[in-house]
Amino acid sequence: MKRLKMDREQLTTQQQQNPAEFTEEQYKSSVALLENIQRLEREKHELEFQASRLRGSVPRFPVATAPPQTAALLKFCLRIRTEQNQLKDIKFDFIPGKDSADALSNDLIAAGLLEMKNIVVVAANITKLVENPSQKKLIFPLGNMPPSQLEEKKLIGYAQLNLIE
Questions:
Q1: Which of 87, 108, 95, 106 is nearest to 157 (CA)?
Q2: Where is the composition biased (Basic and acidic residues) (predicted)?
């Protein structure tokens, strides 16, 4: 590559100093040589670019890495009683690594599907199921009723969170 660079510099100098001494054949030859030099320089830059990309994608030291985990979509169903004492099923999706239990609970409140007083307990139980999806179902107290009125089987004062397959 250095030789080609020197040839180009010499050729340019000769053309500038003695333009009349160049025959048409020499001129065509010099143009072809310059085009060849430019092509080789483009190829060199392309190879350098590819090499830099390869260096960036290959670790320099052997590192034990876990295989990339795909964020599996988790589907939930929250069964909860409304203030009118009606059971309501609220279905929603959760993407681990992207969604958070707190943000999801806030979204349920913003949509009018969950009461503010239940936000912490619902978020905590979403987190439990996300961390242990083999559990599939949780029934938990909401803490908004006196203990004498609680009925777990009828979900009075309780909520049920299911992980749907």
A1: 87
A2: 1-10
Tens-place pLDDT, residues 97-147 = 888 999 999 998 898 888 888 899 999 999 999 999 899 999 999 877 788
pLDDT tens track for 16-38: 666 555 566 766 776 677 677 77
CA 127 to CA 132: how far, in whole Å? 8
b vs e for 116-150, b when ≥16 Cβ sit within 10 Å of the residue's Cβ?
eebbebbbebbeebbeeeeeeebebebeeeeeeee
Domain boundaries, given as residue ranges, for the chain: 2-57, 74-164
Count how many residues are written for the chain. Answer: 165
Q: How far apart are CA 1 and CA 7, in angstroms?
A: 10
Q: Please provide residue 2's backbone torsions phi and psi, each rounded to the nearest 5 degrees.
A: -65, -40
Q: Quick check: 133 and 164 in contact, CB under 8 A?
A: no
What are phi and psi for residue 58, nearest 5 degrees? Answer: -110, 125
Write out the CATH class of domain 74-164.
alpha beta
Gap between the Cα atoms of 93 and 77, Å rounded: 9
Pair 158, 139: CB distance under 8 Å: yes
